[in-house]
Amino acid sequence: MATETTGAAAAPGIIDVQLALGQICLDRGSAAQAAEWFRIAARSGDARAINMMGRCFERGWGVPADPGQAAACYRKAADRGDAWALFNLADLHCRGEGVPADDAAAYRLYAAAARKGHAKALNMLGLFHECGRAVPVDGAAARAFFQAAAEGGDCWGRFNHARMLILDGRLEEALPWFRRALDAGFPDFYRCMADALAGHPDPRLRALARQAAAMAEAGTPS
After folding, report:
1. What is the value of pTM for the model shown?
2. All structural domains of the chain
3. What is the dihedral of CA 36, 221, 92, 44, to 10 degrees?
4. Which Gene3D superfamilies match (predicted)?
């Protein structure tokens, strides 16, 4: 999983060590130990640690899954300015888990995260503008947000930017972005990309679909 504890101060401190230990435990499948490290770090009031406790409650990592508790953690961390917490709370509002389903609230939170440079939030703003959720349909705005997300390194942003380029008849420009999306993805993303491109008439896109499917099967980037 991609860590959400990035952005720490350059000089390592005790909170940074606790967060790193929690992430190591999480990556090794020791969810209960990970949750304990995040809980210890969160006692300091560190927004990153509080956000990670929210993730534990959202995903059931070492604690019973509780979307309401997850939302409370995210809100507390978001109030301290954490970009990941803003994004995660927006996601809950999108799905109506632990908080009321509220597209307008989700959009505001994604926008706040995007102002902090959160690439995944930029991609979500693009989707909202493309689909007309909380805001009027605006293809130009969607394209601008997808491009910003792609340039920021988000795999979905790269995929959606490439998708828009194809719709605009710019296939040659789209191909490198699809390839770059594979460099930044994860198994569920690879499966979605494979499904989306498998039936395309261009053989290069079908080849990318096969590559994505193989990466999804392997479970790790190639």
Report:
1. 0.90
2. 14-109 (1.25.40.10), 117-222 (1.25.40.10)
3. 30
4. Tetratricopeptide repeat domain
